[in-house]
Amino acid sequence: MTIYQLKPAFQNLLRPLCRALAHRGITANQVTVTALLLSLATGATIWLSGGFRWALALLPAILLARMALNAVDGMLAREHAMQSSMGAILNELGDVLSDTALYLPLAIVPGLNPALMTLIVVLAVISEMTGVLAVSIGAQRRYDGPMGKSDRAFAFGLLALLLAAGISVGPWLHLVLGGILLLLLLTVVNRARCALMEVKA
């Protein structure tokens, strides 16, 4: 199970906005770049603030906005004849760079283990690479969970919200990060396994 399975319902909510953007001549690639720039700016803000609570409070809203932009760029590409090779590259690179920009600065937040956060970011990149590699062996691009992009956004958005609200840090935080790390490992294995099963079938 993964939050990604809710994407069709989320897209339906955003479809009027998507049509409005297409009518105004906004392209899918422009939306993709906007999502990346928003992520870079937010990550830089968290880093430069030293992980202060006011900066962490921005993260949940930015993650939701990024998810919306990611859904919109896909709909623009598919439903308004904007698909391109450049768009496919921008989409995959944008996701990985955005994840890195948003989550790696959390390593400096007091109470968050820098080593665990770094490993989480590395495994997040590997999980997305595994999903893309499925295409190279003849399978579909894999989005299997349990810790896909949407799941990571939910987990870290909630975590940032709790920390911004002043929840005391402690051993529970290391357990949460360790759990996310294990779920990412499972996601890598799951995506590889599902891709191989698809090709075999």
TrEMBL record:
GO terms for biological process: phospholipid biosynthetic process. Signal peptide: none annotated. It comes from the Bacteria. Keywords: Membrane, Transferase, Transmembrane, Transmembrane helix. InterPro entries: CDP-OH_P_trans, CDP-OH_PTrfase_TM_dom. The chain crosses the membrane at residues 21-48, 115-139, 151-169, 175-192. GO terms for molecular function: phosphotransferase activity, for other substituted phosphate groups. One of its GO terms (cellular component) is membrane. This is CDP-diacylglycerol--glycerol-3-phosphate 3-phosphatidyltransferase, putative. The lineage of its organism: Bacteria, Pseudomonadati, Thermodesulfobacteriota, Desulfuromonadia, Desulfuromonadales.
